[in-house]
Amino acid sequence: MSRAAAPLQWLTMGLLAVGLLGLSPALSLSLLAFGLAVLTALKLREARRIEERRVVALLQLVCAGLLAALRPELGPSLLQGLAILMALAGLLALELGAGPDWKALLRRSLQVLLAALPIALVLFLLLPRLTPFSNLGTGHGMGAVTGLSDSMEPGSIAKLSVSREAAARVAFPLGGGPPPLEQRYWRVLVHERFDGRSWRSAEPPFARPAAGQPTPAPPPPAPGEGIQLWLTEPSGLSTVPWSGAGRPLSADLNLQRSGELLNRAPGSQRRVYALTRTAEPGDWRSVPPGPSDLLLPRGENPKLEALAGEWRRLGSERERLNAAGSWFRAQPFRYSLEPGALPRQAPLDHFLFETRLGFCGHYASAFTTLMRAAGVPARVVSGYRGGQWVQPVGGTGYIDLRQADAHAWSEVWLQGEGWRRVDPTAWADGDPLASATAGAGSLAGAGGPWDWLQQQWWGLDIAWARWWLGYDSEQQQALVARLLGKQRHLLGLVVLLAVAISLAASLGGLGWLGRRRSGDPLRLELERTLRAFARQGMAPQAGETLAGFAQRLTRRWPELAGPLGDFVEQYQGQRFASTPSRSGRREAQRLGRVLRRSLNTGIQSKEAVQRVDR
Amino acid sequence: MDFGRPQQGERVRLQMRSLYILPTRFGWLWLAGTVLMQVVGIQMQSNGTLLLSFLMLSLFLLALHLTHFNLQGVELGCGAPAPGFAGDPVPYPIQVRCPGRSEGVRLRLGGEQAGAPLSLPPGDHELAVAWTPPGRGWQRPGLLRVQTTAPLGLFCCWSRWYPAAAQLIYPARRAGPVRLLAVATAPVAGAPSVASRHDGSEDWRDLAPHRPQDSPSRLAWKLLAQGRGEYAKRFLDRPEAPPLLAPEPGLPLEQALEHLSERIWSYHGRGLSYGLVLPGQTIAAGRGVLHRDQCLAALATCR
Question: Which of A100, A458, B180, B271 is deepest in the core (most CB within 10 A)?
């Protein structure tokens, strides 16, 4: 048992502990991982015999596997990979000799890991995935974190603080570029129910498939279709942002009739999902409004109702909408994050006719109420707006959404047109999006080196999400279909063959590494040269000096006298030099090669002469 | 792991047919861990866990071969074993020729404890494996077990071989009465020879703490006068001729031989001369390592 084993195993425990820090304690699996890590540490503390220490290494691997299931992101995955490497090194150190030769140990661990990796990758890529046995443990809505919430009550917020925390990232890996800035509305929640003060969203009916019955996987994107790949930070919501146009690409996603996108993965985790980019005919936009989209507590805001009553006399819904738009633009509304709280009595009247100061929630709430009062079905939608387009070095570009990009807008139902987005905030003076559109491009590239680093890291993160987290059952089947075409029934044979070939290659590689001689390069060069002569039957005798042996060789092959003398002189000069130089060693190696080549050509030409003689 | 057909012969080359390999208990545990990781990976749809599970499986497959390669092609042979005493651990030389690097090799003879794992570079090695012979005579050490679990401890690869070379084992050394026979020949000139057990009065030998029963004439008065304590002078009788050692009559032969073995060892340690008389064999008095080994070998092979 090497003395390096104990420090390595403790180091692994430390890495695992760091990995455990970010776990949410709500999931039962994370409690299991935590308990297992504690037990492993206790076992490591008391373990004396080699067998116990081996079990510790195995427990550490299992811990790392549980962590990998809980934290699949790029950063934690790197940490887990390191922990797995260290656990393996600890296991190898148990069998090695006593000396703590760190370099040799690390080299050996890397060798073994690299040798095992091809087989693992073959199995990972080619073996068909099983569907989960049940839908245990994938609940949703585990405590809100930040950002959006399913109820919106702008009147009670006196000051909205701007949080620069990351909310989501969306990439368009199949090209197509980002949508223009004024089109970047990413919807998350639809608020239909209004009680005079707060907007709530209807509880989404969660279509959960029965256990053991997998939902059929949606068809892959057509060749021409673009993809929006989303990566959202933990939000506590079961609905996730999307562009409003597109078709979900995984069975985990469920598109609601209201235009909300539900994700079955727990909201306390980071979620990765993909949709197509193209709008579908007959999607949520054309779902007619229900009676709740006109409901409104009558009499709460009398001035508002009086104003909307005037518009009610206008003929079509479009005219009422236009009237509201021109009214808003005519009033001195200003955008502010610190509008002060609204009174409990007639809050929207106060906002519309007195303060005229507010942020997106105020505008969306007041406009939607006005529309409802005017008899136009309307609702509030919250989500994100804008976002910064980031192009990382050598990667796919993405739109970076922060919590500060959270936004609320309205949707109104226009007969014959369907639901239409109206952003009343855009009519206010000082709207951040309007100023961003005016100075487009000035936002990108702003920020210090730390921001730049973070953007690069997120670019990597997007690539990781796309290539690693996105490799699921469908991708696997697509790969197999690409490899085998119609010969799918041969998959078992192909997997076995590939495993056998990679096993043979790994063992061959390890064997080659083991046979490779190590040591003084000068000495190795001499041995190589001596072996070449030994193949011709000339080996140095006991006690013979190199110079003496060279004389003997010259007698047999007089034509080798030149290169032999050069090599011997250079070798001895280098060997007995007070300060051997790197260039001198290189020269000796070159002369050795020259000598061996002239030996081989000399022998060949001699054989040729003999053949001619015959 | 310890079963399988043992190999016979002077030298043995470990091949496919003479090597056995099975997963250790840890190996089975490892497989169980692999299955657990697979289940967690499938249930949580986690690529990292699935890859770890496949990695553990492929390490298992790889370890099967790496462990086997540790012993594959290794040649075992016996050296010339040096004699030793029964009842004590005795080194038995095993020659090992490794074609490649052999890691974690443990050798075990008979019912002994396995030695520490050895990492053997390619080439010839002579290893001493300890065993405790039960009795005297030409003894074979019994079954040699070669095993390794390196590099990961997942598999145990082993082989069994009966080394052919017999080792000469002297009787165990046990103090006890020995019959001393007088000898006719005079002692070798100038050589100290064995004194009788009883102290005499002729030659001064050494000093010993004074006992009350010692005669006052033996008291070392000079030392007493110098204040260095009471000492009695000890004297020996005139040196006798070197004795011939023989088995004590009345004792079982084996026990008598063990006493003789101890006596020869201690006489040799004190540099004294002695001879040996055994049933059917007599060795004249003498001294030195060769003489000692000759006497001990006679004891070992005595019938």
Answer: A458
Domain-embedded: residue A544: yes
Same domain membership, residue A351 and residue A323: yes
d(CA B15, CA B181) in angstroms, rounded, equals 58
Q: What's the gap between Cα B20 and its chain centre?
A: 28
Total count of domains within chain A? 4
Q: What is the ipTM of this complex?
A: 0.75
End-to-end CA distance of chain A: 66
Q: Which of A100, A120, A153 is the last residue of a domain?
A: A100
Query: Do residue A51 and residue A96 come from a single domain?
Result: yes
Taking only the tens place, the pLDDT of each residue in A315-356 is: 788 888 899 999 988 888 888 877 878 888 888 888 888 888
Mean pLDDT of chain A: 82
pLDDT of residue A440: 46
pLDDT grade, residue A146 (50/70/90)? very low
SS3 A208: coil
Tell me, yes or no, whether B64 and B148 share the same domain: yes
Residues 254 to 293 of B: which have CB under 8 A from any A CB?
none
Task: Please tell me the distance from the alpha carbon of residue A546 to that of residue A570, in angstroms, as a whole number.
Answer: 12
DSSP for B61-89, please give it.
Answer: HHHHHHHHHHHTT-EEEE--PPPEETTS-
* Domain containing residue B127: 1-168
Distances (CA, A) of A233 to A73, A147, A387, A456, A598: 11, 10, 15, 17, 68
DSSP result, B32-46 = HHHHHHHHHHHHHT-
Helix (H) or strand (E) run with residue B202 in it: none
Chain A residue closest in CA terms to B152: A92
**Whether B145 contacts B179, CB under 8 Å:** no
Short-list A465, A433, A418, CA closest to A279 = A418
Question: Which residues in B lie closer than 8 A to residue A50 (C-beta atoms)?
Answer: 153
Q: Is the peptide bond before B151 cis (omega within 30 degrees of 0)?
A: yes
Structure tokens at A93: 């150190």
* Chain B residues close to A507, C-beta within 8 Å: 62, 65-66, 69
Domain end call among A378, A412, A441: A378
Distance between A475 CA and the closest CA of chain B, angstroms: 12
Give the nearest partner residue to B45 out of A132, A506, A515, using CB atoms. A132
d(CA B145, CA B162): 9
| Domain stops at, among B238, B261, B292 | B238
Instruction: State whether A312 and A453 are in the same domain.
Output: no
- Residues of A whose CB is below 8 A from B69: 507, 511
Are A362 and A427 contained in the same domain? no
Lookup: tokens for A345: 């009595």
Q: Which residues of A touch B57 (CB under 8 A)?
A: 119-120, 123
Q: Which of B238, B263, B294 delimits the end of a domain?
A: B238
- A367 and A298 both lie in a single domain: yes
Q: pLDDT digits over A58-100, tens only?
A: 999 999 999 998 888 888 999 999 999 999 999 988 877 656 5
**Measured between CB atoms, which of A65, A120, A471 is closest to B49?**
A65
Identify the domain containing residue A574 by its residue range: 521-613
pLDDT above 90 (res A41): yes
Same domain, A366 and A401: no
A95, B57: Cβ pair inside 8 Å? no
Q: Does the beta carbon of B57 lie under 8 angstroms from any beta carbon of chain A?
A: yes
Q: What domain count does chain B have?
A: 3
Out of B30, B47, B66, the one facing A469 most closely (by C-beta) is: B47
| Integer angstrom CA distances of residue A22 from A67, A307, A531 | 10, 52, 59
Strand extents, DSSP E, chain B: 11-13, 20-23, 75-78, 84-85, 90-98, 102-109, 118-120, 123-131, 137-139, 144-148, 155-161, 167-170, 179-181, 203-209, 231-236, 244-246, 274-278, 281-286
Q: Is A412 exposed, middle or buried (0-12, 13-18, 19+ CB in 10 A)?
A: buried
Question: CA–CA separation, B298 vs B278, rounded Å?
Answer: 8
